[in-house]
Every structure is written in structure tokens, then in C-alpha cells.
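Run log // design_07
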């Protein structure tokens, strides 16, 4: 694989994994539009490993607090001074509760991913389906923006919220749906603020992306990384990680003061263009 293809696909993955526009859909369409061959499982692992690194680094502090609380470590460490202080009972409860909610929200995606793994790799990867889902989910996002009450913070998330967002994440097995788009929309329907919905979406994506990386790595263990793909593997991972981190930071900051309108409009226009190309026989 040429380096420029690894760089382009790494940028596409890093941007679209966390923006509500569908990473799998964009990767499929970019490769089809440019008539690039499928780089195979090794490169897919590289791109997902990069976005996993990005989300782990960005939320490292929060994950550490959650895991400390889960294992009974009643301490807070100041990130700047290094000072140690105890968590309040309420803070400890919130951190433990958030971990259980993330576990609960991950279950629907894990089940659906396992049941429809073959269809996701073969049947669902059609440009017309990708484009249709881009438009359908855009309309759902528009509805969520209008219906949302924007009152719940991340600490106020409950069981019904986690299950709703988890089921929405499971729907993202269909290319074009977008994991972040469907989960953020679900969070808004449940009354979460945009910032809280995005944070819960990205935290919930962490175990799913990690699981996909592990499963693909297990498959890859039997075949190994092709010699001509090793450098592309490294480049794809690095580019995806850097772009992914910047995207997470920028998107969360964006949602503090702005709506999803620009992404809704983009999805609809993009979907219509792709459907027109499919109709003209380009794909």
C-alpha cells in the first residue's frame, strides 16, 4: 500500500470515527470512489488501534478515576500538583455507577456485533445502503436536536439512558449509521446535554473499539502482517491516533456552544450525492 493511501485513510478514520458522520461508511466510499483496493485486515486493525489510542489518551484521567473507584481506591490525585485527597462518598458512588452503566451500555453492541459480524463485512457494505443510512440518521439527529431537553449531565446518567445509548451503538454495525451520530442522538432523546451525550458516547466506544481490535488481532495472528503492509500499518495507526485525538477535543469543545446542524446538513448532502452516483452506475 502506498504511503499516501495510508495517510488519507488514517485521516478519514481519525475524523469520522468520532464525528457523527460514519467512519465505516466514509472508508468504504473513499476507497470505492478512488478505486483503491481493500487494504485488508491488517490495516483495519491499524486504523482502529489508532482511534483506540486517541480515545484512551483523551479520557485517561476519567478512566483512571473510574477504575480506582471500582477497585475501592478512595483517592483523588491532582493532575498538576500531584496532591492526594480522598473522594467524597458521592464522588465515589458516581464513579462506580458510571462504570456499571458503561458495562451495561456495551452489552447490546457486543451481542449485535457477534450475531451480524458476517453481514457487516459483506452484505451491509453497499454504497446505496451507506448513503441511505447517512440520510436516515441525519433526520434522526435533527429530530433529537428538536426533542432534547438538554438537562442531564454525565453524572445524572441512569440505567435507561445507558441501555438506550447502547442499543443505538449496536445499530452502528450498519455502515453509514455512525456510532457517534446514533449514540449522541440517543443521548439527546434521553435529555442529556450535547457535551454529556458526546462524552458518554466516546466512553462507551472505548470497550467496543478495543474489542474489535482484539478480535481482529486474533484473526491476524494466524496470517501475520504482510511484509509490504508493515510500514503502512505504522503510518495508519499514528495518523489515525493523532487526528482522532484532535477530533475528540475539538468536537467536545464545539458541542458546548453549538448544535449538530452542520453535521446533519453534511450527511444529507453527502448521502444524496452518493445515491446520485450509484444511480448513474459509478459504483
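design_07 sequence
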Amino acid at each position: 500500500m502506498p504511503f499516501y493511501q495510508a495517510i488519507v485513510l488514517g485521516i478519514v478514520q481519525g475524523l469520522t470515527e468520532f464525528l457523527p458522520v460514519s467512519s465505516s461508511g466514509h472508508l468504504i466510499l473513499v476507497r470505492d470512489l478512488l478505486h483503491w483496493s481493500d487494504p485488508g485486515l491488517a490495516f483495519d486493525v491499524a486504523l482502529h488501534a489508532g482511534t483506540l489510542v486517541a480515545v484512551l489518551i483523551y479520557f485517561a484521567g476519567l478512566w483512571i478515576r473510574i477504575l480506582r473507584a471500582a477497585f475501592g481506591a478512595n483517592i483523588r490525585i491532582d493532575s498538576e500538583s500531584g496532591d492526594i485527597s480522598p473522594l467524597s462518598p458521592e464522588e465515589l458512588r458516581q464513579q462506580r455507577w458510571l462504570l456499571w452503566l458503561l458495562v451495561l451500555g456495551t452489552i447490546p453492541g457486543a451481542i449485535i456485533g457477534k450475531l451480524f459480524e458476517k453481514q457487516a463485512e459483506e452484505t451491509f457494505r453497499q454504497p446505496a445502503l451507506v448513503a441511505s443510512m447517512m440520510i436516515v440518521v441525519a433526520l434522526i439527529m435533527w429530530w433529537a436536536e428538536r426533542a432534547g431537553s438538554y438537562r442531564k449531565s454525565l453524572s445524572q446518567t441512569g440505567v435507561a439512558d445507558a441501555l438506550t445509548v447502547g442499543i443505538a451503538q449496536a445499530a452502528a454495525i450498519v455502515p453509514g449509521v455512525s456510532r457517534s451520530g446514533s449514540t449522541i442522538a440517543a443521548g439527546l432523546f434521553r435529555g442529556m446535554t450535547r457535551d454529556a451525550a458526546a462524552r458518554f458516547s466516546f466512553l462507551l466506544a472505548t470497550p467496543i473499539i478495543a474489542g474489535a481490535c482484539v478480535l481482529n488481532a486474533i484473526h491476524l495472528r494466524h496470517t501475520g502482517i504482510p511484509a509490504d503492509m508493515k510500514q503502512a500499518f505504522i503510518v495508519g495507526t499514528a495518523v489515525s491516533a493523532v487526528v482522532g485525538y484532535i477530533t475528540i477535543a475539538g468536537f467536545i469543545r464545539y458541542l458546548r456552544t453549538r448544535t449538530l446542524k452542520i453535521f446533519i446538513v453534511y450527511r444529507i448532502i453527502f448521502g444524496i450525492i452518493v445515491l446520485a452516483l450509484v444511480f448513474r452506475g459509478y459504483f
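The chain has twelve helices and two strands.
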